[in-house]
Fold:
Amino acid sequence: MIFQTIRQQQPLIHCITNYVVANFQANGLLAIGASPVMADDCQEVEEMVAIAQALLINIGTLNNRTKSAMLLAGEKANILDIPVVLDPVGVGATTYRKETVKYLLENIQFAVIRCNLGELAAIAGVNWQQKGVDSGHGTIAMEAEAVSLAQRYQCIVIVTGERDFITDGKHSQWIAGGHPQMTEVTGTGCLLSAICGAAYSVSHNPYQQLIETLTYYKKAGVLASAFTADIGDFQIALLNAIHRLSKDGVASCIL
Structure:
């Protein structure tokens, strides 16, 4: 099981991420046995990514300093064949975010793009009303646009929501499950992106392992909801759930 594999291999995941979720991401990676490092200064990101097994680029609290660091780290990761995950948080909300993501996609080879429906629409150039960093609303041929994006950038595209969709441009799959509370606290999607980096780094078949990652992350949400109905406790319950999955595997899914 992929979470157990991550615990066995203990990959170092370099996260250039946003300050809203950095602590939750770090604790989530620790919960499955990975090692997080949050380094985003241009003076050290190339050295740091060189000793990591995966790089996460998350634009949630984007600024010019971190934009430069993202490019340096991404280019170094490409040279060293280290997988890079892009989480284009709120890319459709502002021109600055759109231009930055376009710039990163032009200059970095990403292994995975993990986004929500509104972020997919923004990258694909589809008319969409994004609500800040939330998904927003509009009309999009989601499957076709995700497949097209995967083919254009030669990467795996994951679109998360009530049901998740994953494609490598040739193969595609829907994944059901999860719990509504996962959308009521900040950071669950951002943590998933970091875990996807860990899963990609330890696997010989990244596409299949990412399907398993999405499946068991949704199961973790269900497990967490079974232990608390209080939204303030949900993040802790989710960390506990992925920790149990990484230690006990599918046996921990039995309530």
Summary: The first helix runs from residue 2 to 9. The CA atoms of residues 147 and 169 lie 5 Å apart. The longest strand covers residues 12-16.
